[in-house]
Amino acid sequence: MAAPVIELDALTRRFGDLVAVDSIDLRVEPGQFFGFLGPNGAGKSTTIKMVTGLLAPTSGRIRILGTDLVADPVAVKRQIGVVPEGLALYGRLTGAEFLNFAGRLYGLDRETTARRASELLEFMRLADRPDTLITDYSHGMQKKLAMAAAVIHGPRILFLDEPFEGVDAIAAGTLKAMLQRMIANGATIFLTSHVLEIVERLCSHVAIIDHGKLVAQGSLDELRAGQQRNLEQIFLSVVGGPPETAGELSWLG
Amino acid sequence: MAGVDAGIGVQEQLRLIAQLRWQLFRNGLRSIRGRLEVVSRVLTVLTMSGVVTAGAIGSAIAGYVALETHRSWLLPLVLWAVALVWQLYPIVGATSTVQFDFRNLLRFPLRFSSFVLLTLAYGLADPAAIATLLWLTCFTIGMLVASPVTAAAVLPVLVLFAAMNLLFGRMVLAWVDRWLAQRRSREILSVLFILLILAFQFSGPILGDWKGATPVSGAALLQWQEPLPPGVAAAALASAADGRWVGAVAFALAEVAYGGLFGGLLLVRLRMQYRGEDLGESNRARVDASPVAPGWRLPLLGEKTSAIVEKELRYVFRNPSMLVVFAVPVLLVCLLGLSHGSSRHGAGLVGQYGQFMYPVAAAYVSLVLLNIIYNSFGYDGNGIEWLYMAPVRFRQVLVGKNVTVVLLMTMNLVILWIAVGVVATPPGAMVVLPTIAAVAFLLLVHFSIGNLMSLQLPRRVSIGFSRNRVAGVSGLASLMVSAVSLAICAAAFGVGFWLGRMWIAAAVLAVFAVVVSPAYRWSLRRCDDLAMKQREVLVAELVRRE
Prior knowledge:
heterodimer, A: alpha/beta, 35% helix, B: mainly alpha, 20 helices
């Protein structure tokens, strides 16, 4: 078995009295398309922020590709790509200018950066807006650009926080095609999402977090445990379904 | 549609909206801040009521005196006062109060007539409108006491005048609102606003030059204002007072025409809002794709630092308020020349001390420009997360940002050199060299402190007009550092001038710069650790979640 590319040991994050992430242990193997699920406020975004260096853990250890994130963050960041919740874009640049900026910060030379930026803009169907500032892009366009910037250096691991939120079907199709191509080329993808159908279709492995604790983890087949259940049924059985509402809102519809 | 009525009347809709406003007010009282705001508003109302009462008494007296003693020039005076307060107060007040956006109501089944009525009713409920309507009422009473026979003309003319003011005010706000809704038009407005403020700042020296000119006479002023709405209303009143009824009717019709114009423009805007106009900026025309040009390669700088400098400079030149930083020093030099005799060999400050205009202007530029060093990440906004996710050290980022400031300062020094050369004489080497040494010293001092403060006390700054480019404490620190370091520079210049050897000033300041440089290197070394410690503060302050 290959060494895990993401290892979280007793990872914990507190905000005052609130324990947002409570001693999580997690392993992600190379080449996995890993879905990280949980209800709103379960601790998904907090976890992904800690793993990508946007938030300091209260305690615990994060190792990415065998390197400790706290000890050598620059070495880790060189090999990963991130699309955070806020997209982290510079609104006053054009798409091409931002990709030029991103590629060079990842250590690519000017020519390589420009060539890859052209290809990415073309692939994402953003190339026909060369003079439009990012602040004037639609949300879907911004998401595609953030994705392009996250992969311009060919990362070995890609972290995505809700990549399909607010994205139309065409853009979602583009993003999915790109992610599947990355997986085929040996990269590892770690994503959080509320859209269980997409996770079920794309991901090979899933972990579910609830109230800061990891409540389920494994391949989809392992989580099904031999039963004919879809991911939504697994998810609801683990985190609990909606409250009983029979008799309420009877006038609706 | 179970239980949904076929439709509710305008009266019911207005009642519901009034109830909504009342509920919003009550909910606002839940917080301490909300209660304090109410207290401050009550205090403001009490203070303002004194002013309003004085205005009401004055209007009544003016109305009475105007007709009783045939001082018709009082009529436009009162009407202009009413118009200016009615129109200007809401604009000034809008900066400090939360405005209610009627477009939020459009999601409900609101009729267009209700939408228009609400817009007008909100205009009438404005404190300035209430106060000025009171003044107009008192003005009417004063005139009617003096000449009851004019009632048939005075009442409709003043009602028309009030309606015209209401329509004009709402029309202006509706159109300004539309321009502010789009980035480009918003930025153009912000530049115009900055230029307006600058015009006020520089009006002193310019007016100083006009002291000898003939003052504008009151008669000429009265003539100029006549075709404008308050002038037209005043002319209608004056005609009625003199028994010229045809003239009164003609002027009243002109008033109606003005009202019709303002009302028409307002309706155009409201109709667009009601139809759900899309002011989004993402639907621009597409063009053929072309390959991406490589980024800038800057000499002596690595790839990452070059990328940061390129990004910073692009931001600067797309920021209208930063462009003012370049305009102000040139204006300053030109105005210094205007105020003290622009002749190349004239007397006065320029003639005697023209050589010092260059360092003085450079000092002024440093005051205006260098405070941005104390909030270096202010314009990064959401991009700050990118800096934390990328394999880049914060010392590299800050070096890139510092290099950008050096380039901006250099550009300013060149522009200043040209401006001083045009207004007086081109500054010679013995002025330029100590100035450059002083700027190097100033930059190193500000970088050493400002880089650390940028990480300690970040503040998100919006592109466009913003008075607060740095947090309060950082602003104070910037001011104090500027005061001390500029005093040192001034002392060095003074010594050089006194000895008649300006090269001494250049040498002393160059030595100071060299002495300060280890502090700069030390602060850069501290930046990486501090950035990691402060990452949650920076992200929380700078990143705006949609």
